[in-house]
Amino acid sequence: MRTIKFLIISLLLIVFFGSFIVEAAPSDLVYTIDVEGEVNSGLARFIEKSIDRAETDGAEAIILQITTFGGLVDSAVAIRDILIDTSVMTVAYVKDRAWSAGALITLACDKIYMSPGSSMGAAETRPNEEKYISAFRKEFKTTAEKQGRNSDIAAAMVDSDIAIDGVIEKGKLLTLTASEATELGMADLIVTSQHNLLADLGFEDGIIRKLEPTLIDRFARYVTNPYVGSILITVGFVALVVEAITLGWGVAGTIGILSLATFFSGNLLVGNTNWGLILLFVAGMILLALELFVVPGFGVTGLGGIILVIASLFLTFNDPTIGLYAVSFSLISSIIITIILFRFFGKSKTWNRIALTITQSKENGYLAAKTRSDLLGLEGEALTTLRPTGTALIAGERIDVLSESSYIEKGNKIKVVKIEGVKVIVREI
Fold it and tell me: Which of the listed CATH numbers 3.90.226.10, 1.10.10.10, 3.40.50.970, 3.40.630.30 matches domain 2-213?
């Protein structure tokens, strides 16, 4: 009797744990992620993390639910490489649009499913120049070839000079509807829902888990948007300029530092920049501060600071064209906004507290110092030691003078050799 009970209990345990093991088997695990909005380095970082997670957990497949008008070419190429290189099955589910950079991501997946009314293509480069068209066209062709799809049709999504009989005429970019993509073999199937997609793949009874971007992922993706980056740089520059003409350290300086720190930290997270470029930027700002507050005039220090700051910002953008536009926009915007702020606050009570607004006119009793050109060539005696400034007796008058050399002893004979405005410059005889 005890033996029968033991066998029954053992059988129940085997059935229970066996069903659990089957349920949690890696072959039944499927991850899904959303590919929405602009394609940029922040999205590339999130997809790379998601692929790593899928590989580590032994997932059978990862589904990319795509809705995007496109984005940065370099980020799209980086995502393409990640998808091509992974051992996990990659599935593109075009829910709405997969245009431009989104089309390359779609073509890089092992399988492509499209919902009714969706489209794929329209991969025109910006700027629309042969150099960029040629590079992006090759990426589309090689990606299509790698995944066993028609490379000419893929290339026609980028290059309007490509004509394909019955598909696209010369002079127009190719964009395929869901039905057209399926008929031409660029997509595998039209599905009305993710459930139908999973059923076609044989995973309808599997474990489906959606990977969501973390707060840091969202922050990095938002900050690495070129438009947001340009705004952060502009706000940082304007705030620091305002801080430079006010006394002490206040709100403007804090806003400036936070804006620039946000820009660099977001790009540091996705690998667009490094600590070397950040130190380059800091060194440039230090040189500019020295030029403003220590070194008189404007010279090598200020010019060097400007070059270092611009170079560090430009190199943070992976695409040189986008970097040029973003930095130029930020600099021009900063200058315009600063001028507007000065004009506006120059008439306000706030500005009057930190700026000298009194006119030193003759009517108010202010008189300009008289130029003593009559002293040129006269001799005299140093009444005080000149280090290099001091007082001398010239033609019976006590005159404030400036030594041509660095030092003249008290009582030595001197001669006026130059008059520069109100400065009387003397030389020891």
Answer: 3.90.226.10
In degrees rounded to 5, what are phi and psi of residue 91? -130, 125
Residue among 182, 191, 157 nearest 70 (CA)? 157
Say how many C-beta atoms besides its own lie within 10 A of residue 377's C-beta.
9
Phi, psi angle pair for 129, to nearest 5°:
-120, 155
For the CA atoms of 281, 286, 287, 291, the dihedral, rounded to the nearest 10 degrees, stands at: 140
Question: Does 346 score more than 60 pLDDT?
Answer: no
The 10s digit of each residue's pLDDT in 209-229 is 999 999 999 999 899 888 899
Q: What is the DSSP letter of 71?
A: B
Q: Which residues contact 82 (CB under 8 A, 6 or more apart)?
A: 44, 47, 48, 51
pLDDT attached to residue 17: 46
Measure the N-to-C terminal CA separation of the chain; round to a whole number of Å.
130
Q: Rounded CA gap, 173 and 131, in Å?
A: 17
Are the C-beta atoms of 428 and 414 separated by less than 8 Å?
yes
237 burial level (CB within 10 Å; 0-12, 13-18, 19+):
buried
Confidence of residue 270 (pLDDT cuts 50, 70, 90): confident
**DSSP track, 308-328:** HHHHHHHHHSSSHHHHHHHHH
CA 244 – CA 99 distance, rounded (Å): 46
Same fold yes or no, 2-213 and 373-428: no
Asked if residue 113 lies in contact with residue 92, where contact means CB atoms within 8 angstroms, the answer is yes
Q: Under CATH, domain 373-428 is a member of which superfamily?
A: Nucleic acid-binding proteins (2.40.50.140)
Output the pTM of the full model: 0.69
The CA-based dihedral angle spanning residues 393, 398, 404, 410, taken in that order and rounded to the nearest 10 degrees: 60
Cα–Cα distances in Å, from 400 out to 43, 391, 406? Answer: 69, 5, 15
**DSSP result, 109-149:** SSEEEE-TT-EEE----SS--HHHHHHHHHHHHHHHHHTTS
Per-domain residue ranges of the chain = 2-213, 225-354, 373-428
